[in-house]
Every structure is written in C-alpha cells, then in structure tokens.
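dumping this here before i forget
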Amino acid sequence: MIDTPANEALARVSPNGQWIAYVSDVTGTDQIYVEPFPGRGPRIPVGPGTEPVWARDGRRLYYRASSAFWAVDVAAGNTFNPGTPVRLFDDLFPAKGNRHTGYDVAKDGRLLVVGNTESERQIGALKIIQNWLTEVEKRSPSH
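structure:
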C-alpha cells in the first residue's frame, strides 16, 4: 500500500508485472504516473489524465484526458520510457467524477467503452470507430 498525502487511484499493473500505472493529484490536477512494481521507485509522469489501461501486450498505455481518449507507446521492460501521447478520438461518454475505469482494451486492440444512459440519449446514435488503430499508428511519431 502506498500512503501519500495525494489522492491516488485507478492503479493498473502492466502485463509483464513490472510496472504500475495510476492517477495522482499530487500536482493539484489528475496526472498519469508509472512506477516500478512491486516496491517503490521513481514516479514517472506520463501526462495529465485519468483511467490508465495497459494494452494486452504492455507496449501502449491508454487514458482519458481533455474530453478524449489518448494513447502513449511505451517501452516497459527493465526501464520505463513513455513516447509522445497521441489523441485518439473524442470521448463520447465522459466520466462524471467516478473513480473507476469506464473502458477496457480488448485483445484485438479495440477500446470497449461503457456509456451512460444520459449521454446515450443526448447522442441519439451508436458511433462505431473502425480501424482507429491504423490512424493512431499513422500519427505516432515512431512511424
């Protein structure tokens, strides 16, 4: 257990078990951080946001920020090196201050997002974003 004066939540252990991503408001706003796991180590900032979720292969970290979904490619072996965050798409179902993760990443890389009835009524349609991973790869600095 980590005991700090900040609010820290939504911890997710990386698929290789060596890293933990979490949200902390230690700076006054929600930020994504990664630390070695288990144990303590340097707190590595990823960016402003909430709800971190690892890709199944551990090479990408997803999160929500600025009314959108974001992804950052990472090298997470014995060291952790985040790349440049990439905005994926607008968040159609923004969380309303809930301290839980309202989405997950499927084995094939699709983001599965929990909507809420109020937002669904306002949108009035189901929006399916196909091949978004191809768009992310095109925008990624490593390509």
